[in-house]
Batch of 2 targets.
Target 1
Amino acid sequence: MSTAGESGVLASYEYLDSTVDAIEQLRKAGFKPQTYAPYPDHHLEHALGYGRSPVRVWTLCGGLTGAATGMAFPMWTSLTWPLVVGGKPIVSIPPYVVFTFEMMVLFGALSTIIGIFVLSRLPVLKPAVLYDPEFTAGRYGVYVEAEGARLDEARKILKAQEPIEVREGAKHG
Amino acid sequence: MATGQVTERGALTHPDLTRLDDVNRDVLKMLGRPGKGWWILFGIAAGGIGLFVSLWVYQMVRGIGVAGLTSPVGWGVYITTFVFWVGIAHSGTLISAVLFLFRAPWRQSIYRAAEAMTVFAVMTAGLFPLIHVGRVWHAYWLIPYPNSRFLWPNFKSPLVMDVFAITTYFTVSATFFFLGCIPDIAAARDRATGLRKQFYKVISLGWQGTDAQWHHFGNAYVFLAALATPLVLSVHSVVSWDFAMGIVPGWHTTIFAPYFVAGAIFSGLAMVITLIVPMRKIFGLEAYLTTKHFDAMAKLMLLTSLIVFYAYLSEFFLAWYSGEEVERTAFWNRVFGNYWWATWIMLTCNGLVPIMLWFKRVRHSIPALFVITIFVNIGMWFERYVIVVVSLSHEYEPFAWGMYRPSFVEMGILIGSFCWFSFWFLLFTRLLPPIAIQELKEVMPPPLRKRKSMEGAH
């Protein structure tokens, strides 16, 4: 059975403008809607009030760490065994720039991936059961968590935009 | 990411697509039960891997002497093929990352296959240094670690740079590829049944396309593309320095990095066309891969072909203009020496055959493009053969000149590498959605009820 804070109402829409309108009205009424979409749509993101994702910080930190490692590591190894190769200085910056760059890309990319996983809580071990498989095909979904009179209010707003289907219940079954 | 403007332009690239869920229907259909043709190709590829493995084991047991490598030509078919496959990889990242940043509206339906090609081509290329070094059980020497006397690898050597470049390239392109696949694997999961559903359930990582998931995914994708773009340019530059930093006539030039990068993109685009032409035919993807897509790729091929051909000519010109006897002899030998046929194959396939791409009728004819790309694939392999083998066979001292003939082991391993690559590509077309479902929807017009367009509506 549903427990407090985990149950709500889910509406499936065929049209993007209906979905955006439903979100905007729900947010005006003080709800916190969640959406499902088959592709990243910036109209939905805008309606939900998203700003920039903090994933950029992960990229920056990873990239800087990588660049620092890529420069420091060849320097340190050259200094631990000072060996003149081809008449070049022991610490020879131009060839080390290649390692700096490669490690920047490697660390930056990996930390971005880790950032996505952490920020969007992937992998999802308990995916929502109140879900429509059409959300990965062609439908948009709006889910609102509410109880009692608030649930009725949310249902009314969702239904006003002519959804294909409205379901209620516990999000995780 | 999907701005109104992109929607308008994108709608033109796929005029036959109207409903979002049509994409799922058409693409996921490809993951069905494979036909007879697929099994035959898969069987050939698996057999080729058998050949590949047995020849490699034979070389391990008998020693590197079973390859035709000898003084003065110490780098032969193995290094040639290594450079060839690394080059093939490049256009995948070009299409998935560089064209993403440039917002090219025609990349969406090609990029998944191109990106898969990148990953598999690097997987193939990565085997060749291991085969080439002979004693593969010492391959861990490539990884920087202090040996018993605390001596580290020489970080001034381009060969060490190459290890870093290739491993970074493989890691980044493989993760980029997998990340892009996750939403499409979820789409496959929502349609599949039985064992397949369980498989997709696990690898889709529970993706459901919630707003939070898309938000971070979309933002991160831009950064990954921005990191992968300079990486494409760096990897083949580093590969070219393996040669350019050596004082071999024919290698020691500053033009090598841009020349190699252009050649890599040229050969990679050719391979993409070679792969997607049969895919389009077999799976009936005419609505997704239109002549517009082929036209755009053919134009890019033409551009890179011109750069490559210009590089060939400027190498000849500068060898003459330098007045250096050694350089002049080396380049004379390239065109009129013992290996004249390899050079002429290179010049014909990469410089002359692509001239046909100037004509719109050729660019719009899929069979013609297919034939041209086969020529380019062959020509680009010979380009690397000319650079590696012909240069080494004709260095400074006339008494040290010599000939190299690839042994059957080397030729078998070359053929086997194509089978190894095809094996993965064939598996890919059946297990993962070969066309990016979600990215295609981004450029399709969104379904609207009340409004004509979402322009200015938020």
Target 2
Amino acid sequence: MNDTTILAVDDEAHILHVVSLKLKNAGYNVMTANDGEEALELAAANPVDLLITDFQMPGMSGLELARRLHAEPGRRNLPAILLTAHGLALEQVELAYAGITVCLFKPFSPRDLLEKVHQLLEARAQVAASSETPASA
Amino acid sequence: MTPVLTSRPTQLNTTVLARLAERWRPVGLYLACLDRDGALLWHDVQMPRALALCLTIESTIPQQIKRLGEAVTANGVRLHGQVPWIQMQLLPLLRRRKVTGWIVLIGRTDQAAALGEDLARFAQRASLDAQALAALANKAPLVPAGLFGPLVRLAENMHEDLQSVTVSHGELANVTEQLTSVYEEIALLSKISSGMRFSQKPQAFLETVCREMQEISDLRSVMVALARRTDEQSEMEFDDVSVVVGDCGVDGAALLRALHEPIHDALAVGETQVHNEIAPDCDWAKLGDHVRRFVCVPLVRDHRTLGVLIAVDKNDTTEFNSVDLKLLNNVGNQCSIFLENAALYHDMQDLFMGVLHALTRSIDAKDAYTRGHSQRVAELSRELARKIGLPDEQCERVYLSGLLHDVGKIGVPETVLTKPGRLTDDEFTAIKKHPAIGAQILGNIRQLQDVIPGVLFHHERWDGHGYPHLLAGENIPLMGRIICVADSFDAMSSTRTYRPALPLETVLAEITRCAGAQFDPALAKIFVSLDFAPYQRAVAETQAATAAASVPLLEKPGGGV
């Protein structure tokens, strides 16, 4: 777990703190950023295994951030979780286009979030493992 | 080397010390940490040996500290070391103005020389000769003597800053933890209130709520006991728990009996009762074998007792604290709202059905022969609907339709309805109006629009020779076709003015015979396969009631059967 890095992005500091604490306690590395630009800078210099981002942020939206990250080489399948408030209806198509795997509504349960993170990373690991099996089997 | 600590408590934060040591090493100042009495607890592993020796061999530090007594200045204490070319400064670690330990800053401020007896003795203790010791010392970086003091003061300031940063981090972590649990609570309450459906059974809702609560607060068991719905009761009794999540080693009913008093208190006062320990002499002391702590949350709205929520033990064995109680109270409140509304909803349902039954019974009662008819048709229709696989909600609508199918008879003259002999054409025309009249009566009630087809079309025939609209086959709405069969069945099975009740086999044969003509053949086939025992019981009951009221059935003025 210690070699898994999660990038958490939100303009609200308290959410970053809560998410960060919850994930760190579970053994993950966490990088935090307050906006899309900062997040991209961090992603440029560090490996990222999962993205958690708020939707509404000043400047770049969470969707835009996800889109840009997914466009980077090797990051096409980066698992991404979007946090958004109810009422900000996002079309499935929009979410899929940006590569968002899971959408969580605020107020969200930190427990719930942790579980989704586990699930996504496990799924990704399984996909990686199965793509490594030799074709001669 | 990881710092070795004794079990004696000091205000020691090794992360801070390590960081401090790292910053001052380049300048030639090295760090160590002593306990309150001067015993060495920790020193920087990169400290040059010569300096380390001063702290360990024949250290006079404890005595010097003792001599200080209470006169500890905030600026620290310059110590006299074993050798003149090494200087030491002691900085107190204070907690509530009491010394809990010391930080030592030590550095070489002069060229070491192998002079003097004291030095020779010191060297001997270290199993070295004076020359070797001096050589060793000169390997340590030199701190300009004049700078030692200022540097030490700087180091001290830095230590304070680092400590306060560490404290802030700690506080932030604490606040964040609390914030996390607040988030969970808000998410749960939001989920509960948006998921409330007052028409659903309390069971399902309460189970969800209890489970979420158990997970969030890591409780051993959560249960809800619902108040029995009686009108007047001086003391609320609970028979058994309605919902239980988790296992506390005691069965629900037994727990309720044992906790009779705390539950009563909670309800009487309207306040949650927390028992973080079970006294050995109380009524429920026996529970102490299985259970350590519990909380009783009363579920009350407007002085109406709805139930009680009981939480038992936390899995980490800690006490129920204010965070737990806040969540329990909030959740209890939500449950109360739900229960009250669910009760109101069901009251309304009961009222509605009660009125309907009263209405249709009164219409049926105009003619002694049709007493109970609407109820029986409603039940038969519902059975048939279930048998053909309609969803439960639909079956209930069919029941309603069956109940109301003859409501239009209220517009038919009583003389026609109760006429014993054959009807004239005009009289027959009057009776044939009752489906349309019924539909009209119900036409203005928005909530009953979907049951009107059963009322309007229950006299249509599969072959199109029915009334009022001469519909045929599948053009007749399903509800109408269903009630048609049930209605005819009950008519044939009841005693009438012109003939006695036909036996069951005869009626079923007749229905089969008329399948495709009067009745939907598929429905008829399924209908005859129903279990008629409940029906026959209902008929017997009605007959018994009628006989008890001594209304003669087959006797009519002028005789005639």
